[in-house]
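Deliverable D2.4 — example input (structure tokens):
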């Protein structure tokens, strides 16, 4: 081989050697690897975002559902009336007054009439109100009443049949009102209190107290009586008639003029002070009593 042939052979082999490195670093392979990795990253990120979105939606739904149920329950509760309302419909007075074990306390609540009472009521305290009248309808359906107290009202009139059905009534207090006369009283009264009214003698019928065989306490002080009421029952223990306009009494007022042996031993106290009467002028009027009446004798 000549020198020329060797040089040509060398020149031909050089390009082949230089072209080999580019063939080892194919740019397409690098591009495809990079593209595949980025798409995988984007896919995984998108999947994670969607997963989180779905998770958030589920969490919101789980939170919302109980709220909707609770709201529905609240609506149901607001629509359904509570049980006490039924009781209050049956006993409306107990919303204004205090009802306790058969006793009704309606004191200082500014009522102007007797309120509807529970049928089992035994005691009514309606003191210091603005009641002006008592009627038969007020107690028609309350037969178990044993005590009524209307102290400090404005009562001017009481129908005669008001207490006719109260066969168990034992105590009746009408003190500090505007009464001019007395109604028919129930037969089993043990106490009757009508002090501080405007009652005159003509406002008390002759037989008002005659049949009250259980009456022990009678309070008619601070009225406008001109005489002691007639036919006072034998059962009386205390009689208060002080501060009226009583000017005279007779031998039959407390005793029996035709029976000198008669003794009225149950009476413990009679008060007549504050009346325009000199008790010392009527000595025979107290002959049947164990104690003299309280009042002026001179």
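Example output (designed residues):
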């Amino acid at each position: 081989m000549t020198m020329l042939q060797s040089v040509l052979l060398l020149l031909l082999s050089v390009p082949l050697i230089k072209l080999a490195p580019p063939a080892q670093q194919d740019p397409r392979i690098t591009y495809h690897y990079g593209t595949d990795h980025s798409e995988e990253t984007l896919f995984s990120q998108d999947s994670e975002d969607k997963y989180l979105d779905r998770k958030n939606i589920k969490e919101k739904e789980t939170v919302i559902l109980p709220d909707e149920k609770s709201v529905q329950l609240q609506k149901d509760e607001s629509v359904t009336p509570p049980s006490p309302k039924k009781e209050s419909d049956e006993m409306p007075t107990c919303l204004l007054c205090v009802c306790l074990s058969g006793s009704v306390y309606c004191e200082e609540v500014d009522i102007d009439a007797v309120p509807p009472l529970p049928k089992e009521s035994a005691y009514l305290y309606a003191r210091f109100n603005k009641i002006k009248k008592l009627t038969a309808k007020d107690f028609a359906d309350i037969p178990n009443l044993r005590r009524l107290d209307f102290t400090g009202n404005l009562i001017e009139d009481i129908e005669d049949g008001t207490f006719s059905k109260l066969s168990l009534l034992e105590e009746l207090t009408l003190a500090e009102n505007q009464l001019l006369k007395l109604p028919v009283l129930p037969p089993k009264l043990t106490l009757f209190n009508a002090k501080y009214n405007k009652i005159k003698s003509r406002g008390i019928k002759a037989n008002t107290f005659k049949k009250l065989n259980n009456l022990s306490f009678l309070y008619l002080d601070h009225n406008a009586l001109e005489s002691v009421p007639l036919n006072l029952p034998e059962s009386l223990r205390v009689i208060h008639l002080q501060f009226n306009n009583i000017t005279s009494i007779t031998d039959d007022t407390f005793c029996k003029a035709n029976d000198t042996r008669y003794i009225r031993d149950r009476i413990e106290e009679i008060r007549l002070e504050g009346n325009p009467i000199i008790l010392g002028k009527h000595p025979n009027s107290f002959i049947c009593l164990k104690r003299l009446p309280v009042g002026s004798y001179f």
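The chain has a mean pLDDT of 80.
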